[in-house]
Fold each of these.
Amino acid sequence: MTKPFRFEELLARIRLRLRTAARAPEVTVLRSGDLGLDLRTRRARSGDRTVDLTAREFVLLELFLRHPGQVLSREQILSHVWGYDFDPGSNIVDVYVRALRKKLGAQRLETVRGHGVPAAVTDPSGGT
């Protein structure tokens, strides 16, 4: 700042600096146990192995990792991954969940009976 300056302007600039410095760092890798999803490279890692995902599989897995332990309805999944105009009677969610199970291991995606959709990506060792 150049002199002369108003004290209110100095305080406003200090508050702005403090706010930007206090922000949490941006999350670039979502994790559940030994499963990691890198949001920059759009790759999944399961243990030491890299798993290639299609664009829809990536968005679906990201949705599950961002909502750990939550039961997501079929409508929530369809609207987030495929958009609101997608047919709710379609079995597309089942098809993509099956593909993720095949790539990541069947034990990773837990299905809650009565809802028919995966509830969460789980850690095979017992944690979520």
Amino acid sequence: MNRDVDAAPVDIETTRETVRLLLGPDDVPEALPAVPTGLDTLTMLLRGQLAVLIPEVEAKASRLPKGSIPRYCALACVGEAAGKLRLGDGGTPAVRVAVARKLARSAKALCDHYDGLDGEAAPEGRKP
């Protein structure tokens, strides 16, 4: 993979740990953990992690054939995550928590695609 010298490496485990702090293991509203201290820091961290993950997942997905379902799903997730990055942080505590959890769900999905696309490959001799 041609990566710029200045590009940050993808750290899936750290991203997943950040997600767990905001969503918990079940990721259902009635089982969400209490809002962690340092919410603003976690939100900023997630934004940075998404900024690194988005182009990486997009690059992996783009190597798959155009009709590939994993490619389509990963690129849809990339678009969704990019849209979430445009969300403001929110003016009230409840909105700030909601935004952070939306970012966390996008990060979780991108981590899953990042890992899942490792097993996918374009057929030999066929351009994606």
Amino acid sequence: MKVAKSLQDTITLHNGQSMPQLGLGVYKMTDEIEANFAIQSALKIGYRLIDTASLYENEQVVGAAVKESDVSREEIFITSKVWNSDQGYDHTLRAFEESLKKLQTDYMDLYLIHWPGKDSQYKDTWRALERLYNEGTVKAIGVCNFQVHHLKELMASSNEKPVINQVENHPMLTQEELRTYCRENDIVIEAWAPIARNQLANEPVLTHLARKHGKSVSQVILRWHLQNGTVIIPKSVNRDRIRENSEIFDFELSQEEMNRISGLNKDERLGPNPDEFFKDFK
């Protein structure tokens, strides 16, 4: 996969759709004024990917911000997700319509299953996503937090394979086995918590590289993701931080530096394990 060289650069998903490699995540942005300001700021800076979910309870804010912006809807890549309690064929179709209504749009660029859940109900959910994709109201479909065994089970009984697997991914959790499997099956990895919720701000390897390149630790980590071919959606409501997160296209990490960052892996999760997480976690 080629590495994006600007905020407007895109990667090509296996179904031919284009998707920006860097976007804005809006998890936990529940203050409407604050969230609207963050989204408007991101769009003015040049972001074109906004990642939300029904769980985040801010789809209506995303929709309003996109409507109010000077950027046309066609230029903005909007992602949302179906939550665990809405899984199943009919429930998913209803949840999608509700999300579309809140987003004030007649199509979605990417729709994802938020978690695999404790059984194989995601297969029925996926059938609903395939229908939406075939009808054209979704341009691409994918999953979140799927382990290799979930992906194998899903693809064994589906017509479409996911274009994206959005998972927790950062230098403390590099997910090499999962990344390899997804790469072999042309599924793009998208990282949530890409900078490990700032827990690596004082990590010696990263602070050294930050000083060397004249960048922040967050920028070094985001650049590592970029060169790994990962789609990244760092979340911030601060305009300066949103801008800082976008300023990662003017330097490059060597392969040795990339390896040093990958070597920080501890298989340490900040969020729940997909095999243990069911409906009751928020």
Amino acid sequence: MIPSRKEVIDAYYRVQPYVHNTPVLKSSYLNSLSGTEVYFKCENFQKMGAFKMRGAINAILQLSEAQKEAGVVTHSSGNFAQAVSLAAQKVGVKAHIVMPSNAPSVKQEAVKGYGGLITISEPTLAAREAAAATIEKETGATFLHPSNNKEVILGNSTAAYELLHSHPEIEIILTPVGGGGLVAGTALAAHYIGNNCKVVGGEPFAVDDAYRSLQSGKIEINETTNTVADGLRTNLGAINFPIIKELVSEIIRVEEEEIIAAMRLIWERMKIIIEPSCAVPFAAVLKEKQKFKHKKIGIILSGGNVDVKKLPF
């Protein structure tokens, strides 16, 4: 069941007081390089540094009073952990965060700084899920999935909603594809708010489950996670996949060196910090220049939470 236009608009007004309406930047150099006109929606400037704040706050605001009283729980090693912690803090809700033992200490410290209560688990998905399920059972907390949750997806749609509100002439919006929550939300906004605006996903060849899922019509799984785009190592879910299947035009796959080159270009030319996952859509535009030539393109720069001691260039 695809969420309605009203749900998209309601989510936009609901999250507005809690999120930044992030800037939209352009670069004449990157336009000439790509042969198109690119509007970068800078979610790297969002609270906690990524678009995920939008989904987390929308989901928490939609809880009943009893659910808020019991708190929320999620498992995440990165951006969603921080987003849920900060969003919960904003509305006075307790947030339990299961983090794998190999999660960077800088991310653990950020979660603590936002008031998240951390439980460390073994670094396997099964262990993370089991730990979250135990907390859910013991505390009555509501589980929030980072990408396969309708309210999270609707919250994510608000970035593209803002972009199309300020630039209704945009013809195509590109986002990275990991768990599918951002591309699904973007597709909803483009479908209801855009002027015949298409949505295209960018994905690394190393984790091309979404590309293969669109080909086969069912959710495919990644055998490897060997990509510099660490935010995209997750799989699609049963709630976001039907939206993607119906509303996303295509997924373009890019090589690791193409991601790194696009990331470096944005750092050097735009003077802004983005994480590797963020660079995937621009890498897709550079790879398929003919497809996007002379078009007005929106790109959601999904986040800027990168370890500057471990840059890939």
